[in-house]
Amino acid sequence: MLKKVILFVVALSFSTTLFSQNKVTISGNVLENNSENAIAYANVVLKSKLENAFVAGTATNENGLFTISNVTSGNYFLEISSIGFLTHKEAIYIGTLSNFINLKTIQLTADVTSLNEIVIDTKQQEVSAKMDKKTYSLKDNINQSGGSVLQAMQNLPSVSVLDGKVKLRGNDKVIVLIDGKQTALTGFGNQAGLDNIPSSAIDRIEVINNPSSKYDANGNGGIINIIYKKNKVQGFNGKIGFTGGLGALWERKENLPNIRQQYSATPKINPSLSLNYRKNNVNIFFQGDYLYTETLNKNEFVTRTYDDGTVIKQQSKRNRDTHFSTLKSGIDWNIDDKNTFTFSGLYGTEVIIDNGDQPFFNEDLSERFRLWQFLEDEVKITAMATASYLHKFKEAGHHLTLGFNYTFHREDEKYFFDNILPNQPVSKNSFKLLSDEQVYDFNIDYVKPLKYGKMETGIKVRKRNIPINMQFFPGTNTPLDIEAGGEAEYKELIPAVYGNYIFENEKYEAEIGVRVEYVDLNYYVNPDHNTYKNGGYDYFEPFPNVRFAKKIDENNKISIFYNRRVDRPNEVDIRIFPKYDDAEIIKVGNPNLRPQFTNLLELGYKTSWTSGSLYAAMYHRFADGTITRISSTVGNDSLIYAIFQNAGKSYNSGIEMVYAQEVSDTYSFNFNGNMYQNTINAFSVVNLYPSENIFSAGKQKITSGTLKLNNTFHFSNKLDAQVTASYLAPDIIPQGKRAAMFSLDVGLKKSIQKGKGELFFNATDLLNTMVIKKTIEGETFNYTSNNYYETQVIRLGYTYKF
């Protein structure tokens, strides 16, 4: 075991990410030394410090103000000259923490030359300059082109995807943003719809491990920010594309006897269109995407063994058809060089049809106890409207933003199932769930660049209402708990204020901020509900963040982070209605659920050289009130009830390293590794549904991790190739363990039509090895599960830019 751990740690020392250069805008004001009058049309020149070579230049305007944009980080000389004045020269050290540097007032005189040494350090944006964020362009992700956003995330360093959920460093408490905002498209406080958003609509993805106070406090695992495409080129331009594919290329495990066929050779179709028109002070943009897929969404084989010796073998098979459409459009209106309005809207529809079978047999499959066959018809509609106003002050990077966002999300679910038992008439049952979510967000954000950093502050108010109605329609001998239906309403009000200060000089960086958040959440329950009553909570809490960094030299930096965050239960976590998508594992929410508060400490180090870089971090996260789903039985009932509870304290500690190397013009690779230890302390909770019972569990601990090797090949005939291998080590889950997993993805991309066209081909999980294997230990039972859901997909696509 020790040898395995040592080998794993050695492998982690060769991990990586993708790089991009930080671009900085420098501004200042040139005045006469004695009179302090503005000096108009003075020459401003930026030169490299080592070669003394020209980098950029400009002239001051009538008010003596100047701006130089798109400056990369490093050491420079700034020279300012004007007829009648001596040339002013000073050393400039451009940093990485702010995209805007305000040098404020620079004075010229006829007889004195001032030499103030200003040091503003910068480096390549590996894991961001502050080591809090990684940014990935999806155009470089050849293996997952033409798939969904969720599939595109599978190849990103530090990210793993399991059971439709995204994990960062083994933690699934991740908040997903779109263009920096929470929306119903991806869920408020949870992850939703990621597998149905086409990656063709997305420009890049940001992975934020250490969010500052300007972000919502929710999400202790971190933040993933999905940035939609928007072109900034003058005139009319756009991009059109089409992708087709097939999944479930062969049957990995045959069905149990006498049920309907599982999906195979499932089609994938994704046309997309992006348009942009920019002229003078107006920019109009449009993005439209349609995604149709057939998917073997679930194919799980379970063996349940009870303490009395009863053994049940079952299969849960779900064939899914999905139609997903999104339209996103808007306008940027630059009234003048100081004021900009942006209006945008997004409309999305998602239609999901599931046909499923759940047979239940004895141990040798000689007797079928039950057959559960279902049809689920679900329609989701999302509409979002956004308005924002940006005012720029005279100094570059000094601005005020006002924003308003309205989101409407409807979930309309109809579920029909036949409960087929031996020697009994077929019981036909159904239920209908309808919820209409409305969210109002208002924010004010203010940023002021300083000579040695910047200051950020703002306020945000969110009002969120979700009325829900569950209606049951029982048949003969129904298994439905019809007294657990009815109406409920989720109401949430969250005002918050934040402040953040960043300081930077040649040797040190510091960032300190705090977000103060008040939450008032109420959950109103139908008074006739047979178990639950009204629930909710309120709190007034600070969420600080601190970062301190020491610059060893231009290529080496060490940083320490601390932040406090929270995971608020989402509406689906406290939803009181039993869910019957599994005949004998009933999922129920809990209106008495409380927030989970988490503290994170991290120590990070990065170094870079001409052809590569290395990033390493050690982190420790400890949570109180851990939210998890508990599976238990009640009395002699064989049904398993899975209910959300606060399970006490848990810990997640690990090391992460990222290594990238450009070996030659033809070949480069990046290798990412993360090893962590998950611990869940012993706990005991009281479940109220379907009747009061106590559940206790002992302490769980496991060492786990992930490894990813990404190889990129650039051939001379504009042909690129990518090969990615991913390994997920065994891990603990509530009441059990998950086995190791491995996948191999490959992709090819060919530039044609003088760079305007592009052909690509890729295959995900080429070896068809991704099977989720789990073992669960209950107080009166245990079960093993192997889920052979669809993971192998091949795609062929074409895009054209005009």
Explained architecture:
With 802 residues, the chain is mainly β. The protein has two domains: 86 residues, Immunoglobulins (Immunoglobulin-like, Sandwich), CATH 2.60.40; 558 residues, Beta Barrel (Maltoporin, Chain A). It has three helices and 44 strands. The chain has a 22-stranded antiparallel β-barrel. A four-stranded antiparallel beta sheet has the order 3-2-5-6, with no helix packed on it. The longest helix is centred in the N-terminal third of the chain and has 11 residues. The protein is globular, with a radius of gyration of 29 Å.
List keywords for this structure.
single chain; 62% strand; 2 domains; 3 helices; 44 strands; Maltoporin, Chain A; 22-stranded antiparallel barrel; 802 residues; mainly beta; four-stranded antiparallel β-sheet; Immunoglobulin-like; 2% helix
Report how far apart the termini are.
Answer: 57 Å
What is the percent of helical residues?
under 10%
- Structural class, from helix and strand content? mainly beta
Work out the strand percent: over 45%
Question: How many separate domains make up the residues?
Answer: 2
Number of helices: 3
Under the CATH scheme, the architecture of the largest domain is Beta Barrel
**Overall form:** globular
Fourth-level CATH superfamily of the largest domain = TonB-dependent receptor, beta-barrel domain
Tell how many strands the DSSP assignment holds: 44
In this structure, how is the largest beta sheet organized? 22 strands, antiparallel, barrel
The chain-level mean pLDDT equals 86
CATH top-level class of the largest domain: Mainly Beta
